[in-house]
Design goal:
The chain has two domains: 145 residues, D-Maltodextrin-Binding Protein, domain 2 (3-Layer(aba) Sandwich); 120 residues, Periplasmic binding protein-like II (D-Maltodextrin-Binding Protein, domain 2, 3-Layer(aba) Sandwich). Helix content is 38%, strand content 22%. Helix 1 packs across helix 9 and helix 3 runs parallel beside helix 4.
Length: 276
């Protein structure tokens, strides 16, 4: 998304949150969607509810596609998404009287991961693409041991799956031999237990149980994602039906305020305040 578009949306958000901050009553807030955005939503809602004891917020995952579907069906107040809404989704929403408003809340890098025993340190975007298309099937072909590659992917309802497809596969299809997982946490667990495996996750899910690979020789980090030196990076979003009001507006205002963005950083993601 172009920077000018982002600035307009953030300015709009600042205007409506300031207007709605004086709401005198608490409401129930439902949040659904991306498992990548889930840790951000979890940590910020916990802090928000601690500061606002009357607030009642429910949170669930399911993937970006499910979150946007829930927004279209009016079964959620906020849809977490690790990708932009698709034109066909936006068209369907508007046909049902829903006007999705895109609110960037963080920046993320998508990191390819392998088992710590894997000797491979770096892959090119093209090598990653060929692995996930099923054209490269042995680690020896990319500098590793003579072992079969087990490609592990997010499921098709995932925004991370969509973003990986656009930035790495170039719209080519994932091999039917790839093992699909319903969450980033599940990918971490699967790769940590399988010497042959490769997966991909959001930066905030990276831990010591797996090894992050460099992409084109560049390590994923806040610095390299912001400079765009690391190629596989994206914005993370919360979507609402038009301008949020009342408690929903106050919660999103908190997510974007310095305290909320500090929590974003603590979860391993990149706060918007770091962007130049």
């Amino acid at each position: 998304m172009k920077m000018k578009r982002l600035f307009r949306k953030l300015l709009l958000l600042a205007l409506f949150t300031a207007h709605g901050a004086g709401s005198a009553y608490a409401e129930n807030i439902v949040i659904k969607g991306s498992t990548t955005v889930l840790p951000i939503a979890q940590v910020t809602l916990e802090a928000y509810m601690k500061a606002n004891p009357g607030a009642n917020i429910s949170l669930s995952g399911g993937g970006s596609g499910e979150g946007i579907k829930a927004l279209i069906d009016n079964s959620t107040d906020i849809a977490n998404s690790s990708r932009e809404i698709k034109p066909k989704e936006e068209e369907l929403a508007k046909s049902k009287g829903v006007n999705p408003l895109e609110i960037p809340v963080a920046i993320d890098a998508i990191v390819p991961i392998v088992n710590p025993k894997n000797k491979v340190r770096t892959l090119t975007v093209d090598q990653l693409s060929q692995i996930y298309q099923g054209k490269i099937t042995n680690w020896k072909d990319v500098g590793g041991e003579d072992l079969q590659i087990v490609a592990i992917s997010r499921d098709s309802s995932s925004g991370t799956f969509e973003a990986w497809g656009e930035m790495v596969l170039g719209k080519s299809k994932v091999s039917p031999r790839a093992q699909m997982q319903a969450s980033s946490g599940a990918i971490v667990q699967a790769v940590s237990k399988n010497r042959y495996a490769i997966g991909y996750i959001g930066l905030g899910y990276l831990d010591q149980s797996v090894k992050a690979l460099l992409v084109n020789g560049v390590q994923a980090s806040q610095k390299t994602a912001l400079s765009k030196e690391y190629l596989v990076s994206r914005f993370l979003y919360m979507y609402t039906n038009g301008r949020p009001k009342g408690e929903t507006a106050k919660f999103i205002e908190f997510v974007l305020c310095p305290a909320g963005q500090k929590l974003v950083a603590q979860e391993g993601f990149i706060p918007l305040s770091r962007r130049k």
